């Protein structure tokens, strides 16, 4: 561990040093945490941005694998070279600052601001998110419940999809083959003709897995069309569909080493939405209606079948109120349902605790947020309040407030207080012996302070400290779900980026977490990440990354894990078009170069050294 910390300190100091030599100023524009495009340093809440180029540089095809570790305090569980799975033994669990739940129902996944979670267990399905159509990902570290409601208690991951900005039709064909007979392929088309735009992405991924009968394959579709009705109004519609099939020979052996059962999963999820956006300069907003559904079959080894769906409306308007003041007024409505007609091979019967007839919950919540710039922009005050209403859980008042200071010399100081909440899931209310229909929402408050410095160039350094206090958590006591749990998580997070030379850039982050819980999985005590990009020759790009984890609790049997992972990706533009843009790219990726042995999910040993070769054709 001392070696990891020493390496982290040296690289972070070097990053800070490099940052002092350049002349350009950058303030990232984000939408998460405000519902409108604002400079990241103008809001008091902590939002990290991972661009499409940074995601691509990791060589990962599954979005959550690419994000894990790249954002301070964010950790994602994994179990195989490809495929997270669901149910028993499933991975893809997310923790932000140690908060996320198991399965993940306290960190909210969104796509273009639309909430994503399956109705019965109230968690996302990790295999649903691929990288082909992603423009960037914004990660709100800390509660986001004022703007986004339930499940945003610990944070938000907002996937922003690509928009067709250039006139014409552009297609990218990608294929990649590597270790464990793993094959990834995709075709993505982006078009714009006048006021009309479209994006269509198809992908197919498959692998034999790290051992026999641990195979996985997935087909996915994402399509989006848009039309600019006028200078002020535009309309967008999108549809996504993902189907995955996987086998798991490991879970059955965890408690019975002689077991030969193979768990089988067949998962289908789809989503559709229609939105109207307006922009009148001093006033802009959006109204979106959406519908999502899931159909899940799991044989473990007895048959399990669940269905869920969710219908919702999201509406908000951002308004310039007076000099230096901006406000947001919004309203969310959603109703989600779920049923389990078969469990353990048995159909639903009256009084069964393993199956449920279709249940529903309806939520409707108005909210307001406001910011006021003072002292010629040197101080920005921010606050918000949501009245979260539910036909099942009553009314919850959710506040947040914060301040940003710009004292000069490109320094930035900000602090915030926010409350988050999570409504109980159908599983906790109605399923299995532990079910308790009288549960109430979980709650968390978070305080944080950040000090940042921009070095008159393409560089930023930030140091942040936080304290999160969770209460009313749902735990099993005397074989019954009860609101008796609590926790206190404290920590420090550091991030830095610098353009060390014209052809060399560097990103680094470190996070430390102290928790009052003794058995908190997927929440490493120390986490360090550094990524370097080098362009030694025209058309040649070398990306390298180092990820170090210390104090990762896995299980009572395996206790904690410490590991360091070294990865690299080499890309070369072999052919260019007449306008000098890319035509044909060749690339190779290397993961876990040192062949480190480690485990994240109990019993699932992660792959050692792996590699792949691939091509991208841009037409």
Verbal overview:
- Helix content is 6%, strand content 60%.
- With 619 residues, the protein is mainly beta.
- The chain has a 22-stranded antiparallel beta barrel. Strands 3-8-9-6-7 form a 5-stranded mixed sheet.
- It is globular and about 60 Å long.
- Mean pLDDT is 91; it is low at 11-26.
Helix content: under 10%
Helix/strand class:
mainly beta
Number-wise, the strands total 34
Strand content: over 45%
Mean pLDDT: 91
Radius of gyration: 24 Å
Number of helices: 5
Short description:
The chain contains five helices and 34 strands. With 619 residues, the chain is mainly beta.
Tags for this model:
mainly beta, 34 strands
Question: Which helices and strands appear, and what pairs or packs with what?
Answer:
Elements: H1 2-18, E1 29-30, E2 38-39, E3 46-51, H2 52-57, H3 63-67, E4 74-76, E5 94-96, E6 107-111, E7 114-116, E8 134-141, H4 145-148, E9 155-161, E10 168-178, E11 182-193, E12 196-207, E13 216-228, E14 233-248, E15 263-279, E16 283-299, E17 303-322, E18 325-343, E19 346-347, E20 356-374, E21 379-390, E22 394-408, E23 411-422, H5 426-430, E24 442-454, E25 460-476, E26 481-501, E27 504-515, E28 526-537, E29 540-555, E30 559-576, E31 582-591, E32 599-601, E33 604-605, E34 610-618
Parallel strand pairs: 6-9
Antiparallel strand pairs: 1-2, 3-8, 4-5, 6-7, 8-9, 10-11, 10-34, 11-12, 12-13, 13-14, 14-15, 15-16, 16-17, 17-18, 18-19, 18-20, 20-21, 21-22, 22-23, 23-24, 24-25, 25-26, 26-27, 27-28, 28-29, 29-30, 30-31, 31-34, 32-33
């Amino acid at each position: 561990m001392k070696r990891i910390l020493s390496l982290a300190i040296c690289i972070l100091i070097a990053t800070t040093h490099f940052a002092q030599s350049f002349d350009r100023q950058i303030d990232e524009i984000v939408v998460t945490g405000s519902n409108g495009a604002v400079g990241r340093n103008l809001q008091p809440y902590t939002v990290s941005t991972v661009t499409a180029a940074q995601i691509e540089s990791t060589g990962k095809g599954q979005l959550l694998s690419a994000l894990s570790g790249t954002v301070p305090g964010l950790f994602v569980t994994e179990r195989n070279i490809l495929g997270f799975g669901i149910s028993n033994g499933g991975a893809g669990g997310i923790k932000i600052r140690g908060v996320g739940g198991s399965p993940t129902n306290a960190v909210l996944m969104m796509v273009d601001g639309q909430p994503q979670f399956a109705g019965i267990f109230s968690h996302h399905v990790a295999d649903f998110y691929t990288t082909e159509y992603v423009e960037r990902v914004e990660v709100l570290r800390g509660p986001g419940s004022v703007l986004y409601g339930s499940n945003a208690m610990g944070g938000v991951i907002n996937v922003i999809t690509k928009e067709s900005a250039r006139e014409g039709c552009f297609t990218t064909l990608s294929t990649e083959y590597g270790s464990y007979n793993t094959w990834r392929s995709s075709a993505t088309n982006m078009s714009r003709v006048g006021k009309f735009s479209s994006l269509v992405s198809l992908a197919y991924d498959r692998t034999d897995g790290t051992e026999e009968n641990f195979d996985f394959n997935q087909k996915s579709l994402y399509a989006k069309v848009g039309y600019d009705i006028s200078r002020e109004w535009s309309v967008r519609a999108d549809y996504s569909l993902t189907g995955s099939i996987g086998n798991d020979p490991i879970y059955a052996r965890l408690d019975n080493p002689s077991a030969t059962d193979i768990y089988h999963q067949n998962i289908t999820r789809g989503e559709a939405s229609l939105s109207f956006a307006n922009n009148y300069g001093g006033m802009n907003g959006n109204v979106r209606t959406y519908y999502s559904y899931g159909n899940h079959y799991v044989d473990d080894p007895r048959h399990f079948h669940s269905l869920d769906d969710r219908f919702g409306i999201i509406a908000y308007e951002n308004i310039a109120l007076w000099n230096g003041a901006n406000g947001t007024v919004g309203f969310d409505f959603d109703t989600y349902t779920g049923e389990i007609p078969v469990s353990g091979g048995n159909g639903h019967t009256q009084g069964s605790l393993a199956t449920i007839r279709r249940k529903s919950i309806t939520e409707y919540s108005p909210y307001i947020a406001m910011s006021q710039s003072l002292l010629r922009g040197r101080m920005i005050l921010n606050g918000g309040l949501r009245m979260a209403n539910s036909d099942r859980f009553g009314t919850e008042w959710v506040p947040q407030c914060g301040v940003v200071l710009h004292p000069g010399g490109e320094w930035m100081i900000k602090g915030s207080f926010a409350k988050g909440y999570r409504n109980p899931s159908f599983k906790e209310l109605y399923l299995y012996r532990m079910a308790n229909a009288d549960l109430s929402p979980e709650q968390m408050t978070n305080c944080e302070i950040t000090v940042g410095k921009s070095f008159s160039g393409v560089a930023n350094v930030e140091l942040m400290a936080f304290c999160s206090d969770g209460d009313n958590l749902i735990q099993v006591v005397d074989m019954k779900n009860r609101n008796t749990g609590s926790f206190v998580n404290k920590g420090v997070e550091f991030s830095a980026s610098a353009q060390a030379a014209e052809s060399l850039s560097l990103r680094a982050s470190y996070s430390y977490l102290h928790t009052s819980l003794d058995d908190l999985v997927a929440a490493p005590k120390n986490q360090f990440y550094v990524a370097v990009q080098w362009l030694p020759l025209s058309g040649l790009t070398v990306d390298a990354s180092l990820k170090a984890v210390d104090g990762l609790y896995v299980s009572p049997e395996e206790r904690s894990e410490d590991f360091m992972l070294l990865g690299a990706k080499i890309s070369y533009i072999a052919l260019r078009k007449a306008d000098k843009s890319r035509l044909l790219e060749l690339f190779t990726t290397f993961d876990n170069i040192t062949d480190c042995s480690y485990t994240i999910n109990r019993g699932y040993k992660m792959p050692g050294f792996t590699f792949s070769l691939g091509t991208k054709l841009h037409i």
